[in-house]
Automatic annotation (TrEMBL):
Occurrences of domain Amine oxidase (ranges): 100-320
Pfam families found in the cross-reference section: Amino_oxidase, NAD_binding_8
Protein name per its UniProtKB record: FAD-dependent oxidoreductase
Organism (species): Rubrobacter radiotolerans (Arthrobacter radiotolerans)
Entries under InterPro entries matching the protein: Amino_oxidase, FAD/NAD-bd_sf
UniProt GO MF annotations: oxidoreductase activity
Upper lineage: Bacteria, Bacillati, Actinomycetota, Rubrobacteria, Rubrobacterales
Length: 328
């Protein structure tokens, strides 16, 4: 019997769930409030530059995800970027494990996954109602959709806002335990190359900075452009800062670390505040079943393993459960 599903969220988790269900003959609609697909696998144009400002790369540790990565490499959606990054002290860990990037930025992967799917961007879900054994969804624009099953892939606090009142107490509490750290991401277009050491990324993992990369050295921007991530502690303490003030502060930290005059070399900036950037406490399983009937399942990087691989495997697990191939 052909079935139908609404997937809320067009990040890698939601898109992979949708792709698996669609490939099994289900009618699937994906709704996302953003202008495009990808979630935190995000690439933005700033003037002539192209900058990854969310997830910077991903690794593959599991056999199932490795199969996906091989497929993405074969179609040209991803490329190997490096096998290690410089650390705060300038060393480059020689671990030899591949780090992958999107071929034209991290959005190359979700754009590939979204091909041939019914994805509705710019549709913010405002009402979720179970009725007569199915789900009815209404968006801010007035779009209405009905389906047999519902997959929720946004960050857990956003999912709770939409459907928390529908859940049994134990499952609602499990979602509420998932937590995230924020991140200010600042993109700065430069007037000349900065010459960061190859491969163009410095992994600091500290405060007030977490990451610095040059998108031109990385291979996705035609002109020099930095992406700088503030640390989670600094980002949380300063989340109310206006974008320009945050950019000046974060670039000041980068200037101090790199020992160069960034202020005089910066042509333009763009700033993003990621409220749900890093998972600080996850749900131990790769999915959470909210309701058995009508089926409601939660997935994303807050479930199981974190980061891109964890989100991908979570989306696949959600589809597996709906298809009767996996356990909750």
């Amino acid at each position: 019997m052909s079935r139908s599903c609404i997937v809320v969220g067009a990040g890698v988790s939601g898109l992979l769930a949708a792709r698996e269900l669609s490939g099994s003959g289900w009618r699937v609609v994906v709704l996302d409030k953003g202008r495009g697909v990808g979630g935190r696998m995000a690439t933005r144009r700033v003037g002539e530059a192209r900058c990854d400002h969310g997830a910077q790369f991903f690794t593959s540790r599991s056999e199932r995800f490795e199969g996906l990565v091989r497929e993405w490499l074969a179609v040209g959606a991803v490329r190997e970027w490096s096998r290690g990054f410089a650390s705060a002290g300038g060393e480059r860990p020689p671990d030899g494990h591949p780090r992958y990037r999107g071929a034209e930025g991290m959005t190359s992967v979700p754009k590939h996954l979204a091909r041939n799917l019914d994805v509705r961007s710019g549709e913010r879900v405002v009402e979720v109602t179970p009725k007569n054994g199915s789900w009815r969804i209404r968006t801010e624009s007035g779009l209405a959709e009905t389906a047999d099953a519902l997959v929720m892939s946004p960050p857990a606090p956003q999912a709770l806002t939409l459907v928390g009142d529908l859940l049994p107490e134990q499952r609602r509490e499990a979602l509420a335990r998932i937590s995230y750290d924020p991140c200010f991401a600042v993109m700065a277009v430069l007037d000349r190359p900065l010459e960061l050491p190859e491969p163009g990324g410095i992994q600091l993992k500290g405060e007030p900075l977490d990451w610095i990369s040059d998108n031109a050295v990385k291979g996705i921007s035609p002109v020099p452009a930095l992406t700088v991530h503030a640390g989670p502690g600094w980002s949380r303490e300063n989340e109310s800062l206006p974008a320009q003030e945050a950019a000046e502060a974060v670039l000041g930290f980068a200037e101090e670390h790199l020992g160069v005059d960034l202020a005089s070399r910066t042509r333009s900036t763009s700033t993003i505040f990621w409220r749900y950037s890093w998972v600080s406490r996850n749900h131990p399983e790769p999915l959470l079943v909210g309701l058995e009937e009508p089926p409601l399942v939660f997935c994303g990087d807050g479930f199981g393993g974190a980061k891109v691989e964890g989100a991908a495997l979570s989306g696949l697990a959600a589809a597996d459960w709906l298809l009767g191939r996996g356990d909750a």
